[in-house]
Amino acid sequence: MASPSPGAHYDGPPSSWITSDSRALLAAIWSQKLTALVLGPSLAVVLWLFIADYTSPLKRYPGPFLARWTNLYRWWQVYKGNYAPHIKKLHEKYGPVVRLGPNMLDIDLPELSRVIYGTVGWAKSDMYTVNSPLVNGKLLSNIFSEVDPAQHAKMKRPVVRHYSVSAVQALEPQVDSVLTDLLSLLQRRYVEKEQACDVGEWLNFFAWDFMGMVTMSHTYGFLEKGSDIDNVLANNVKLVDYFGLIGQLTWVDYLLDKNPIHSFGPSGIPSVVRFTVEKLTARTKGEDKHYTPDRPDFMQYFLETKKTHPDLVDDAGVTAYMLVNLLAGADTVSIVFQALFYYMLKNPRVYARLSAEVRTAFQPFQLAPYAQARALPYLEAVVHETLRYNPSISMALERVVPPGGLRLPDGSVVPGGKTVGMNPYVIGRNRGVFGEDADEYKPERWLRGEGEGEEEYKERMRRWWESMLVFGGGSRICLGRHVAMMEMYKVVATLVASFDFELEDPEKPWQICARWFIWPKGIVCKLRPRKD
Ligand code: HEM
Predict the structure, then answer these.
(1) What would the DSSP string read from start to end of 414-465?
(2) Which residues make Cβ contacts (< 8 Å) with residue 414, sequence separation at least 6?
(3) Which coenzyme or cofactor does it need (predicted)?
(4) Helix (H, G, I), strand (E, B) or coil at 45
(5) Fewer beta carbons within 10 angstroms: which end of the chain, N or C?
């Protein structure tokens, strides 16, 4: 019998070599090997999952089955785009504490908001680091994304005074100039031409141009163009969605956006970055034609900070503060505006009462001064109710439990190192705080009730605001909340005093996509000159 020589063709042993007995034997050996190969690791994984679940200190907290083992459950809910409403349903099913991941609890206990957001030592979770780019191998955090409380305090200290009520009131002329543009564009394009107007889209253009104006005395030009420019708005949605999605699986960020070989992350908004840097360069060279010292803006405030805190703020720091303003302040306000117009127009009672109040105070096309607008009680009620009912943020504001743990009202203790968070949407609809009708849009709840004493009313308002997390809380509370309030009061009062609005199809609901933000779409209206 010739053995096959190296390199020669070999057809295998003659079939007569393999008897049926040896075939059966071979098959048995292979099936044993396969069984060992497949079943062994599978059993090990199942055992590991069982042990991980059994020994987890969070095992007592209820939640969806898959969430006990993987954050993919949360990722999937974000991906589906109905996050906040879904989490609310989970709380209705499981109670105030829901386990949303192997190490994460979503908590609907407003009485704990002061503890989680208002006490020292509660760091933001690593979800936020997705928001910090990797530069030369180091995370470049910003005032929103920094997770270390001490580092965050260093970033906040130099700029916090520029967001105070008085600093913000000094920006009012900047608001007026963009508001004037909005009014005349709506008048020319829609009222005079009797065309249906996608009000949501225009409020979004306004919110972005407004942030450009208060930040660098120059708009990006969305209103003038009447559309997106360089895909800034579309890419920004991708950027924010990436944060919401990959924030659930932070390690994936190192395979995608922070991949050292090639980044697969979202493209970002390079033209906005370029525009911001150009404006800053022009200002520092004294060549900025749009800036006059009698109309301050945030860039000027931040440049002052560079002088007062040279150890903490350089040009890159000024650019970062400006960019965070744009990214944190445009979409958030735009979403609340859109929700306010949608719910106001869906509820004729609300629209009638608001327009009666506003029209008594302001003439058509009069730019409502902030001080006067915020003195209108029903307008205030509508703004507060919209913030409660439809906060811009759809996800929990995650924090890491400090080493001492978190004691829950049932006596259990969530150990240090675990992640907990409250969702502004869920908390805003908590029946224990806002009443059995918390799921209804009803601005009247913010007015003083019949028979309610002044002190009692003030105490209720204090309690409600303390519970609501629409602007976050404690040392990480939204820096721009006074800016947002000024913008909302002035814009709503001015628009409602100027035009009659009517939904083009009152039966057609808007569409929302709830990931990190609750993106609205489809608020198409007929606009007419104000009748009375
Ligand atoms: C209705 C509008 C707004 C809403 C609902 C809102 C909401 C929030 C929330 C919930 C946080 C805290 C996030 C967390 O703890 O994870 C936050 C932080 C922040 N917001 Fe706003 N925001 C709004 C408008 C603005 C505006 C207009 C600006 C800029 C002028 C702004 C700038 C910031 C900044 C800089 C932070 C980070 C603060 C820090 O960590 O120290 N926001 N915002």
Answers:
(1) EPTT-EEEE-HHHHHT-HHHH-TTTTS--GGGGSPPTT--HHHHHHHHHHHH
(2) 57, 58, 105, 401, 405, 406, 408, 420
(3) heme
(4) helix
(5) N
Residue identifier of the C-alpha nearest atom 6 of ligand 1: 471
Cβ-count burial of 526 within 10 angstroms (0-12 exposed, 13-18 middle, 19+ buried)? middle
**What is the maximal distance between C-alpha atoms in the chain?**
111
Rounded to whole angstroms, how far apart are CA atoms 434 and 418?
A: 29
128-152 burial, b at 16+ Cβ within 10 Å, e below that, comes to bbbbbbbeeeeeebbbbbbbebeeb
- In tens, the pLDDT along 3-60 reads 444 444 555 445 555 577 777 887 888 888 877 788 888 888 888 888 888 889 999 9
* pLDDT tens digits along 508-531: 999 999 999 999 999 999 999 998
Q: Which of 154, 165, 332 to mutate to test the pocket of ligand 1 (most atoms within 8 A of CB)?
A: 332
ipTM of the complex: 0.99
How many Å lie between the centroid of ligand 1 and the Cα of residue 152?
14
105 in Cβ contact with 420 (< 8 Å): yes
Please state, in angstroms and rounded to a whole number, the distance separating the CA atoms of residues 320 and 239. 16
Task: Tell the residue nearest (CA) to atom 31 of ligand 1.
Answer: 480
Pick the closest to residue 297 from 170, 208, 180, 179 (CA basis): 170
The DSSP symbol for 412 reads -
pTM of this structure: 0.92
Structural contact between residues 406 and 413, judged by C-beta atoms closer than 8 angstroms = yes
Q: Is 286 left (phi over 0), alpha (psi -120 to 50) or beta?
A: left
419-422, strands of its sheet edge to edge: 97-101, 104-107, 419-422, 397-400, 123-124
